[in-house]
Amino acid sequence: MKKISRSEGIRGLYKGSSVLILLITPMKAIRFTANDFFRFHLKDKTTNKLSTARQGLAGALTGVVQLVVTVPMELLKIQLQDAGRVAAMEAKQTGKPVTPNISALKVFSDLIRSRGFFGLYKGTFATMCRDVPFCGVYFPVFAKLDSFGPRKLDGSGDAKFYWSFICALSTASCTAVMVTPSDIMKTRIQSISKGAAGDKTYGSVKDAFKDILQHEGIKGFYKGGACRILVLAPTYAIIQGIYFLGVAEKIFGLKRDIKVVK
Questions:
Q1: Does residue 60 register a pLDDT over 60?
Q2: Fewer Cβ in 10 A, N or C end of the chain?
Q3: Do the Cβ atoms of 84 and 4 come closer than 8 Å?
Q4: Predicted structure pTM score
């Protein structure tokens, strides 16, 4: 944070926020809606219950479906966030001040021009290796923990807000650490900037895995794990809590529904 603040100012800490605002909304909408959809259709029609294995399958399928939005979002976000680092390295090498002047639209147009539409989906397999396990573990574990808590008095069967918040916070923390190796490999594969001399580029998960293991060891796969917890845990706690409150239903005047298939 100190390094970014000194070289790019406070605004540098928010690089890529425009992409997140634009794409994280439909991504989260897809994630939670898809999980509800799969949980509903995978439940036992006789008992109206969902086994742990099918909960995991519903989560895994959710991770696959959301890739259509997640991959380009992550790619654009990483390019925007990496612009300042690349510019700082160029300045150090050339001795000339380099001020990064880059926007989401410029990154998007450059990628389309140089790599075509499918260039936006570089790192799809690596992203799938992160999101499928994350969703496959997060949703069933959250649902299990959530089922132990005190219920609301409105007859919905949902847990009280504070309990859902705590469950999402703790579940996302553990799951974030679990998928950190996949996230690191995905990030390095999608870091396609060529401006900084010495930067390594990877063409596949296999290449990234071998290189990180060889030069950084096992610890290299968990760099930034604490940062991921600081980001994902409160994010999921807030989103999950608000989702269970039924804010959208209230805004649109829709009938309140049960959020968790028991």
A1: yes
A2: N
A3: yes
A4: 0.81
